Amino acid sequence: IADQLPGNAEILDVGCGTGLLGRELYAYGFESLHGIDISQKSLEVARQLDVYKAVHRGELGQPLDFLDSSFDALISCGVFARKQVPVNAFEELVRILKPGGILAVVLRVEDEGYYEGKLLEYCSAEMLTEVLRKRLEVLTSCRHDLLVLKKAL
Questions:
Q1: Long-range contacts: 47-55, Cβ < 8 Å, 24+?
Q2: 49, 78, 114, 142: which could form a disulfide with 19 (CB 3.0–4.6 Å)?
């Protein structure tokens, strides 16, 4: 996705935890990073990395404190797994994503389409378009798919 976004893109690290993904994105030259997580302790660690413009406490599946069309990209890794996050969380994420914006999410294959199914519903409704699907074989205990989707204009 680095080649599809300008360096000044407003990016939300969804479920940022302690900021590992944010640190990587910052290393690629993205400087308008925001993080959101449910854990205040994790956010305190992420804030100390000094790679985020702002970190926000919020719970996925609940209304998020962002205006409509706030972000050029939403990126999430290791969050949507084992049905820990309500599937309705994508409703808010689509709301805060700008038209033409990118949603990149890593999903566990072993979740048997729990989250993927909801994203494909958005594709069927022509709200999102699948740009990329890639199988990631990082761990021996489970497999992941990277899905990159673009919000309709």
A1: 49/19, 49/22, 49/23, 51/19, 51/22, 51/23, 51/25, 51/26, 52/13, 52/16, 52/19, 52/22, 55/16
A2: 49
Which of 127, 126, 86, 131 shows the shortest CA–CA distance to 104? 131
pLDDT at residue number 140: 67
pLDDT in tens, 52-88: 999 999 999 999 999 999 999 999 998 998 788 999 9
End-to-end Cα separation, the chain, in angstroms: 18
Look at residue 1 and tell me whether its pLDDT is greater than 70. no
Q: What CA–CA distance (Å, rounded) separates 95 from 105?
A: 16
Instruction: Report the candidate in 128, 57, 61 with the shortest Cα–Cα distance to residue 92.
Output: 61
Burial class (CB in 10 A: 0-12, 13-18, 19+), 93: buried
pLDDT, position 108: 83
Token pair recorded at residue 43: 């956010």
Phi, psi of 95, deg, nearest 5:
-60, -40
